[in-house]
């Protein structure tokens, strides 16, 4: 368990330049299904019927690949120094409504990326061969009027 | 909206207020749109600046600097809404979290869909501990979606019957399920489900809920009981039941700044209530152009 959490910090630093001290008042809770929640509340409360604690932060696949959640990216993405792709206004509107985005040239290496429009971190994408695959949860996709 | 209100509904309203004509007029108007800035993810100044750029004009909510009223329906399709920087919520629904004195451990006992939960988390600045419970599993989906969108990290979601819960809390919100008469402006369907027997059933459950939640309150702790209905059986009668069945319950007045509230009714169907009903607050739609609401603030003396 400890090692897994060290993995998370290492990954956030290496992939996005997110420093460990950003999360010093938080704890990461891992579920059996490989979901990681970020929790900033007090500990010591437990109930059998607990559904979740904190914010869904990331998911670890069976092959040990870490995928950050859109919720996590919206909260911490502005602190990231790498692993970021920036979109134009038209691209951002298309991304928010669920489209994949082909980039002319991406600064990030392939893998999960923080998708930004101006200073706003919109959510998670997966970059591969110049295309950002849309990782926004279906329920979050919407038509945004960008001005 | 010119809805047909059942005769027994109208009779009850006319027993409660003298300005029923103004009430009916307010109920037939469109409810203004309100939202709050989610301070967990954005600052009020930045959101206001961007909304100004969009040409969305807003008016302040007098008792809550983070909240605004607008006639512009575009709020729901802004980037700020997508990002969880704003949350659309009714004006009266802002009241209960503001009335509650927040300690370290806070319980939102009937939490879904999470408007007040996420507002509480913002007021707590994602610190302390917020337990958000709802008995209906299906409704938790909306609650967890709102927690995600608004960036709430201090909350534990549980799915229990409050009556079986254990634990001690510094602050408890009982935003009770009710006959929802006060939401008619927004949901005309409410009238199809409305009946006096439903009011009696709600009242019986609310009495058990408030007593149980008061039990879970630490000494010196704060409890807020609220409904979105006008029915005295679900409001003053529930508070009366708590005060006469629980030792150490004391009412405190809650006065939202610049907002008109009226005292509770002192009797219903010829039966006087056994407490000073000026200490609880009723919100009538005609007074502030909102939905209807009831709110009582209770302290556990220790």
Describe this structure in words.
The complex is a heterodimer of chains A (about 150) and B (about 300). Chain A has helices at about 1-15, 70-75, 90-95; strands spanning about 25-30, 35-40, 50-55, 55-60, 65-70, 85, 100, 110-115, 120-130, 130-135. In chain A, strands 6-8-9-10-7 form a 5-stranded mixed beta sheet. In chain A, strands 1-2-4-5 form a 4-stranded antiparallel beta sheet. The termini of chain A are far apart. The model of chain A has no long low-confidence stretch (mean pLDDT about 90). With about 150 residues, chain A is α+β, with helices and mostly antiparallel strands. In chain A, about 35% of the residues are buried. Chain A contains 3 helices and 10 strands, in the order αβββββαβαββββ. Chain A has 2 domains: about 1-75, no CATH class; about 75-140, Nuclear Transport Factor 2, Chain: A, CATH 3.10.450.720. Chain B is an alpha/beta fold and about 300 residues long. Chain B folds into 2 domains: about 5-30 and about 90-300, Rossmann fold (3-Layer(aba) Sandwich), CATH 3.40.50; about 30-90, Alpha-Beta Plaits, CATH 3.30.70. Chain B is about 30% helix and about 25% strand. Chain B has helices at about 5-15, 20-25, 45-55, 80, 95-100, 115-125, 140-150, 190-195, 195-215, 235-245, 285-290, and strands at about 35, 60, 65-70, 85-90, 105-110, 130-135, 155-160, 170-175, 215-225, 250, 260-265, 265-270, 270, 280-285, 295-300. In chain B, strands 5, 6, 7, 8, 9, 10, 11, 14 and 15 form a 9-stranded mixed beta sheet that branches. In chain B, strand 12 and strand 13 (about 270) form a beta hairpin. The termini of chain B are far apart. In chain B, about 50% of the residues are buried. At the A-B interface, strand 3 and helix 2 of A face helix 4, strand 6, helix 7 and strand 7 of B. Strand 3 (about 50-55) of chain A pairs antiparallel with strand 7 (about 155-160) of chain B.
């Amino acid at each position: 368990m400890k090692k897994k959490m060290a993995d998370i910090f290492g990954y956030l630093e290496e992939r996005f330049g997110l420093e460990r001290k950003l999360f010093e008042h938080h704890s990461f809770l891992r579920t059996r299904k490989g979901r990681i929640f970020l929790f900033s509340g007090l500990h010591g409360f437990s109930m059998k019927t607990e559904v979740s604690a904190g914010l869904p932060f990331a998911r670890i696949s069976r092959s040990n690949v870490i995928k950050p959640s859109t919720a996590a990216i919206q909260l911490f993405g502005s602190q990231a120094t790498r692993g970021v792709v920036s979109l134009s206004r038209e691209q951002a509107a298309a991304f928010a409504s669920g489209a994949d985005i082909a980039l002319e040239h991406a600064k990030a290496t392939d893998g999960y990326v923080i998708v930004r429009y101006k200073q706003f971190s919109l959510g998670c994408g997966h970059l591969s061969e110049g295309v950002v695959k849309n990782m926004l949860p279906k329920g979050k996709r919407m038509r945004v009027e960008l001005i | 909206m010119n809805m047909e209100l059942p005769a027994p509904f109208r009779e009850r309203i006319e027993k409660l207020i003298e300005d029923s004509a103004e009430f009916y007029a307010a109920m037939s108007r469109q409810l203004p749109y309100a939202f709050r800035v989610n301070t967990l993810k954005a600052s009020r100044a930045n959101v206001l600046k961007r909304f100004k750029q969009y040409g969305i004009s807003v008016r302040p909510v007098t008792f809550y600097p983070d909240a605004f009223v607008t006639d512009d329906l575009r709020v729901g399709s802004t980037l700020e809404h997508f990002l969880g920087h704003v949350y659309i919520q009714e004006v009266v629904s802002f009241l209960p979290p503001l009335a509650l004195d927040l300690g370290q451990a806070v319980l939102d006992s009937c939490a879904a869909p999470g408007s007040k939960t996420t507002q509480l988390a913002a007021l707590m600045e994602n610190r302390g501990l917020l337990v958000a419970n709802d008995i209906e599993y299906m409704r938790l989906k909306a609650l967890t979606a709102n927690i995600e969108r608004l960036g709430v990290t201090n909350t534990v979601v549980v799915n229990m019957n409050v009556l079986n819960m254990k634990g001690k809390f510094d602050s408890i919100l009982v935003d009770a399920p009710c006959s929802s008469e006060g939401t008619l402006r927004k949901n005309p369907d409410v009238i199809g489900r409305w009946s006096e027997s439903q009011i009696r059933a709600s009242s019986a459950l609310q009495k058990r809920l408030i007593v149980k939640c008061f039990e879970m309150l630490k000494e010196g702790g704060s409890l807020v009981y609220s409904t979105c209905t006008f029915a005295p059986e679900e409001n003053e009668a529930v508070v009366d039941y708590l005060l006469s069945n629980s030792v150490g319950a004391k009412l405190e007045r809650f006065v939202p700044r610049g907002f008109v509230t009226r005292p509770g009714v002192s009797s219903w169907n010829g039966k006087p209530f056994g407490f000073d009903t000026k200490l609880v607050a009723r919100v009538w739609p005609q007074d502030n152009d909102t939905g209807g609401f009831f709110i009582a603030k209770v302290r556990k003396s220790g």
